[in-house]
Amino acid sequence: MAFSARVSAAPLAQINVTPLVDVLLVLLVITMITSPVLTHKLKLDLPQPGITNHMTPADTVQLSIRPDGTMVWNDVPLDAAMLSSQLAIAGHQGKPVHLVIDPADGVSYQTVAGVIAEAKEQGLQHIDFMASR
Length: 133
Fold this sequence. Notes:
3 helices; Nucleotidyltransferase, domain 5; elongated; alpha/beta; 133 residues
């Protein structure tokens, strides 16, 4: 039996595609994982440039939430039941009400989220947070 041995010293002109396939599979997995996160939509009501709003100015109501969970509505302390009635009154007024929430440091997220959900449920559209103290 005769075996032939490669005698020529010419380099092989072939590409090793295994590392390329590995990189492409990793990129495919990353794309599959991150694409659902990128499609999450959040509705924001941003001001448009050049458009002026000629509505009547809204009454501003400041709601402070203290670290212990007590709340203050325009310098008047209130509890959860009183908050519900105040939000209902503010939501059913004829002119718009601008609610500014001022949560203190240490207030639980659940408390603030509950206040926002209840305010939206009562029909308040303009809800902001206090910018600075």
